[in-house]
């Protein structure tokens, strides 16, 4: 059973995870400073989404069939969408990293590198920091790594992570002081990568994992909750990422839906939602509930993911949405090859065609999603 990947272009999200000092960071879309046209932005977003969904689908399929024994961790990350600026070490150096709700590990490139990709900032050198410390194999964070992703031949905890797009990082698990905005956080566990490859780093020095596993930043901080508000990927302004006490759900318009836990231990890091169906305009589509169901083996279900710009649907659901849009929009179909979209319409000057809204009702509450 295929998974559904949900991402909202303009949305505020609150993830309730247990309390910590509030941290405020700014999320910046990777395309924000490139001065691209709307068509170019759409095309890049479509391609990024396809690669991301393919990567996650491959990872989830492998995790569903894998045993819980000596296996490599699920492959999470594929493409960059949002970045944050942090500082690392004492004295600290500024770094731009990827913020990713689809992966756990916090890691960055470390000097001296055996192999590193280019980054605009200086590569972090642990020998120049007063607060760097290697983590031993007996540490709880090292033991949190799947056995297939760690090497404990010696005292130090060596890690290896590979990704579905052939990217990888390998090095030592360590701890360091991180600076998030004005907040200094000592003892953050991270991967100090000495051999790294990212297929498309977009100026990033590494990844800050925000998923549900013990290695992620939110889990290490004991934050209990985090929230982020994403502006449209076509806007140049940044948007907030709030961790800990600053993250709150308030206001008369605020709605909530519970996160769902995947029963498969290899897939517990992802944020699952309970999608109840899809409607286009006033029409609730006759899509079987089994299409959206999270199954006992961990297959199926709906994931919300910061790295997926557009919503990805299982084939049966996608075809139903596509056909309903075509039936409701009284406009000629256009060639969308320049944008990467499968279905586009010509909108002649003065036309008054119907522009239906797609809605994806979630458990307890309904959230409207603007039609793409």
TrEMBL record:
InterPro entries: Aspartic_peptidase_AS (IPR001969), Pepsin-like_plant (IPR034161), PEPTIDASE_A1 (IPR033121), Peptidase_aspartic_dom_sf (IPR021109), Plant_Aspart_Prot_A1 (IPR051708), TAXi_C (IPR032799), TAXi_N (IPR032861)
Position of the signal peptide: 1-20
CDD domains: pepsin_A_like_plant
Keyword Ion transport applies: no
Highest taxon listed in the record's lineage: Eukaryota
GO molecular function terms listed in the Swiss-Prot or TrEMBL record: aspartic-type endopeptidase activity
One GO cellular component, as annotated: extracellular region
A biological process term (GO) from this entry: proteolysis
Keywords assigned: Aspartyl protease, Glycoprotein, Hydrolase, Protease, Signal
Domain Peptidase A1, first and last residues per copy: 82-372
PANTHER family: OS04G0448300 PROTEIN (PTHR47967:SF23), OS07G0603500 PROTEIN-RELATED (PTHR47967)
Family: Belongs to the peptidase A1 family.
Protein name: Aspartic proteinase nepenthesin-1-like
